[in-house]
Amino acid sequence: MEKDLVKLSIEHGIAHVCLNRPSKINALSYEMFTSIDKVIKRLGNDKSVNAVILSGAEGNFCSGLDVKSVANSPSKAIKLLFKWLPGNANLAQRVSLDWQRLPIPVIAVLEGCCYGGGTQIALGADIRIASPECKLSIMEAKWGLVPDMAGLVALRQIMPKDKALMLTYTADILNATQALELGLISQISNTPYDAALELANHIMRTSPDANAAIKRSINQSWTGSVRSLLARESLSQIRLLLGKNRVIAAIRQTKQPDKPYRSRQSWW
After folding, report:
1. Which end of the chain has fewer CB atoms at under 10 Å, N or C?
2. Three-class SS of residue 38?
3. Residue 36 in 3-state DSSP?
4. Three-state DSSP class for residue 263
């Protein structure tokens, strides 16, 4: 059994998160769910992190739920799905949804298998860069399951309902080109990790406070009313302008575009 189910390293403000269960094609055991959840919480509390690159070990992102591992332990299945209120996120849902809730840009690097729960986790990222050989599938129906890891939060924003239903009903496996056409991924690259790192470094030259506000505003307003969108944009701008030291830093940044920002404010 792999020792660190999720590897985390932070370099120059960029967090590198790697799903690390290669002997099982990075399949999701209960322990892996809890490890991902802990890493997300740690990153949310680290104000020095301004971008995240999420990947899988040894050429695969994630082959989905380790059904046998979870089914053999009813107590773990209960812990995975338990929630105090129906509208809350349980552990299975947090490993997708909470990437969206982080006030940090999250870039997923998709290689090899990205099936079922792996696709659900990838949908939690803001941007998905895939290798040409990557295969994606919303595969839960094949195993008699409903996709219940909150990937639908992002899926409903990136494709029409009929396309989402077709993918979910059929559990078809898509190649990278098909996934790009449907909006499941953002970009195809022969060197997806390098492309993600280049993008993360580019993001590091912009304001982390502005990025946090942009991510929050877009995610919460994408399917909301126009009135809520207008209110959210105005409130975010006021909060940014009230932090005048950060505004001054942003102005200075335009004169030194290659110098990365240090950290974001705690109120994001």
Report:
1. N
2. helix
3. helix
4. coil
